[in-house]
Every structure is written in C-alpha cells, then in structure tokens.
Structure prediction request, 279 residues.
Amino acid sequence: MSFTRGQFCKDLLVALGNILPTQNVINFMIGWSIEESGHDLSHMASYNLWNTTLPLPGSTVFNYANVQNYTSYAQGIQANAATIRNGLYPALLRALQTNDSFSLGVTGPMAGDVAGDLSVWVSGQREPIQTSYTSTIIAIARNPGNAANDTASGTGTPITFGPGGCPAFTLCPASDGTVPSCKTNCECVYCGNQSQIDKCKQVCDQNNGGVGVGVNTPSIISQLGAAGAWITNPTRVIKMIAGLLLIAGALVMLIAPDVLSVIPETAPIVAAAKAQPKP
Prediction:
C-alpha cells in the first residue's frame, strides 16, 4: 500500500488522541519523521517512519538496531502510537495531543521537557539534550516544503541473520578499509563506533539467547593469533583446567605428610608411616 508522509503523520496524531491536529503539529511530525527516516522513503522500514523497535505479530527486523518492518499501514500506526504512549515521553505526548505547537518548537522555543523526551527517544537518556536532533526537527517543521507529499510503498526489506543469531550487515564506510562482522559468538566488530557496537550487542542478546560481546576493530582475539584461537576452543580450555587441578592435587599429596608432622597429635602416626619399608 502506498501512502504519503503527511497522511501517516496525521493518522498517527489521531491514534495518539488528537482527532483535529493543527497544521503546525502535523508539520512537527513531518520534521520528526524526516529526522528519523530521511527524505527518501524508499529506504525506510516498512510502515515505520519513526523507526520504532516494538515487535508485533508478523513484523520483521529491518536493521541492526532491531527497527521493525510492519505488515500493514494500520499496524505501523499502531506500533508507533504504542511506542509514543509507553510512558517515556509524557511531555511530548501531551503537546502532540493538545496541539501545543509552541512547546513543540514550531511557533516558539521548544520546551525543555519535550526536548528531554526527544533525547530519550534518540539516545535512551534525557541528558544531555540531543540539540542537533531537536534543532533539525524544528528547522524542518518550520519549513517542511513539499515533504508531506513524500510517498512510501511499505515494502521494507528484512535484515538477514547469520550463524548464532547475529545480524549480517556492514556499517563501516567503504573508505574505512575494514570490514566489520558479527561472528558466531556474537562478537560485534565495528570501526571504533561504540554506539553501533552496543546496538549489535543488543540484537545478539535478543536473537542468540546470550551475551553479545562488542569490541572495536581489530578484534582483541584476532590480535592474539594462534593463541587467541586456542583460547576460544572450549575443549582445550576444559582439558587445561582439569590438568591444573590434577597437578594441584598431586602437590597436596606430596606435601601433606610434612604439614601433618607439625601437629603434635598426629606426629606418632606420621613417624610410623615414614618408618615403613618402601617396596
């Protein structure tokens, strides 16, 4: 199903409880959606202009951050509305519901609590305020041009997963000269970008049932060469531990008589044992 950005923004506002949204508030949603999914909607997740990660029946993973492709226009509206309503964005939700374009930054300076909510949306934290994010939204909202007519088809391509539930994708720019990967042990290798590592770890955790390990390129294990390969072999590690335990036990047996000999109550027993002829 094809749809326009403007229609999706208006329908989402209605789903949030604003049955008569003003153009200024619609423009805010247009600016926010562009900052999230870009001007070219052909590359966005299916029916998901705000890149929400809320899984719903039939939805699929679109990218490394677990953004979802939704099965229909209605499901996309449902998912984005549910996310905005989840309790993490109270000031933003209130402004959207009440046509408060001033607090949203369209007709006045953006309210601090709204900016805080948007910072939570993009970074997961209320502070520091993500001023670059909020400023871009405001600038577009005040001059959206023809963005309301941007058209999407709702056909986002699901991401593929490799061995161990790791996402198969590449994030480093070609000019970087390195190729990041998510290995079978969910080791996420990225070009020094910690935020991308954290996102990969999250996907690994969700899909692999374990803990994703994030390291910067080059991998710490790969730096160890043959030793690193030996360490990552669980059978060898178990054998090594067992061998060390046996050696420790043998040492205890060898020194035990000498230790006991210093205890007066056991001295006669130790002396008698030492006096026995050796076979």
